[in-house]
């Protein structure tokens, strides 16, 4: 177990969900951090930034299969593979015509992650992605 939480989630009647500190905090103090649930490189940056760590650099290596995903090195490629494998084959099939928006790609990644990680992830410590979905459904 990590250190005790400094913040908690609460429900404010009529206003919705909120987060609040459980102790005095210093100005600028970091109270919570977590990895992104999932992410995707924006279309315009393809080839300029690594598809895995998003570092901007020259001479990124292409995915050997689709040649449309770019990485710093083998470690970055391996790190992105659980997500990129979902897209790599269609990138190969459609080649330069494969051009969905980052919103479409991100949605696909969220759905794939929900399927492969039905349990709560570290990113969902205070709010699950499922809860976002139920809220959206309630509004619609
Ligand atoms: Zn990288
Ligand atoms: Zn690929």
From TrEMBL:
It is found in: Cytoplasm; Nucleus. It catalyses: L-lysyl(4)-[histone H3] + 3 S-adenosyl-L-methionine = N(6),N(6),N(6)-trimethyl-L-lysyl(4)-[histone H3] + 3 S-adenosyl-L-homocysteine + 3 H(+). GO terms for molecular function: histone H3K4 trimethyltransferase activity; zinc ion binding. Its EC number is 2.1.1.354. The keyword Heme does not apply. InterPro entries: H3K4_H4K5_MeTrfase, SET_dom_sf, Znf_MYND. Its main location: cytoplasm. GO terms for cellular component: cytoplasm; nucleus. GO terms for biological process: methylation. Pfam families: zf-MYND (PF01753). Keywords: Cytoplasm, Metal-binding, Methyltransferase, Nucleus, S-adenosyl-L-methionine, Transcription, Transcription regulation, Transferase, Zinc, Zinc-finger. SUPFAM superfamilies: SET domain. This is [histone H3]-lysine(4) N-trimethyltransferase. It comes from Eleutherodactylus coqui (Puerto Rican coqui).
